[in-house]
């Protein structure tokens, strides 16, 4: 059941209406039923995995809470907690490994053995990747770690905890929520609030605009080129690569935006997942803005426990590489994703090594670090490196990625550009819609960059303060663009595959 499907447009109003009709004491139970139904629409049998992860992490929290209050010696308490959190991680990561990585691991081992002249026929496991498994397992494990660190008390109400793990707006593609935010809110079922409903629905509409008007149109051109990279050169490859950066941003942000809006309608606030990532002035800054729920998860539960930057420069760089290797692997069982993650790790290390030199250069040349031209240059340079990494993320193989980078250097015959452009899959109407949609996104991003940074839906709020005629003209313009985009939609959100 995609957010951009007819089924969801029927499911969501019914879920919301009955949620507010039911008495408060049973609203969480209704949401849990809705969440499990929503998940089972993909493959009913995989609900077992969601429930298993929920039960394991729920019990691990109770065991650690019991140990803490048992009156046992501190050493015994630590031992019980260590074994409990280890068991929780092994069982959950074991599920994730089997369903997401087992065939990739077997194939990789076979290839390595073949390099040494050892012929091995690896078994092929008949498994299908359960939708959302990477997201809900990481969310459940964050709860385990928070209880382990005594940052929260273990949740005693199983149904409330089960809803935290399976909350349908963000179940299959995030944001990866924390217990200190969402679980705490679930203790008090949401109340009907007109402002929340209005803001939530407008936020959802903005998400649909990003997906259907921009992302799905970018996908047409990107897929045309990347599915035959040897058949295109120069500006065609550059355009496809730039549009993929736009596609994945709008595609993933659209899901997060719709999720945030849907949760707000129900009376809950989900965490922000994107904060103008293409306005980043460095790779480090980019990762403070991109997929914030995952990057903060990796920081808090992997990078810092490994030692972070506290144990010397070499250890710091090792920790960075491990973290970004895991980030790449989390995205998918393919070397392209791993290469993408490792490349970002290398970027971060090079950036850290060069920082003292760039700081001295600015000091010697007496260039103001706040200079606007310098600021724009840093944004452009950062985007170029981010987009180079996106080439590996999108390509069907690492070989294809290098083909894209190499062939992008070829110059094009200016006389053929107009003709070639329409051969990339987008006709004039769809190209025009894409350009208008991108312009709207750019304007909204500039407004937010120059406005109240705490306002997560600045454009929506700005529109809501206009007079009646302007406000509804803009609303209907957005709706009409979404409606006119229905003939090319139906594509899954990119992050569903992770």
Automatic annotation (TrEMBL):
Entry membrane topology: Multi-pass membrane protein
Gene Ontology terms describing biological process: alginic acid biosynthetic process
Superkingdom classification of source: Bacteria
Subcellular location: Cell membrane
Regions crossing the membrane: 6-22, 46-63, 83-104, 116-138, 208-226, 232-250, 317-340, 373-393, 431-449, 469-488
Keywords linked to the UniProt accession: Acyltransferase, Cell membrane, Membrane, Transferase, Transmembrane, Transmembrane helix
GO MF annotation terms: acyltransferase activity
GO cellular component: plasma membrane
InterPro entries according to UniProt: Ac/AlaTfrase_AlgI/DltB, AlgI, MB_O-acyltransferase, MBOAT_fam
Family from the record: Belongs to the membrane-bound acyltransferase family.
The name this protein goes by in its record: D-alanyl-lipoteichoic acid acyltransferase DltB, MBOAT superfamily
Organism name: Pseudobutyrivibrio ruminis DSM 9787
Native organism taxonomy: Bacteria, Bacillati, Bacillota, Clostridia, Lachnospirales
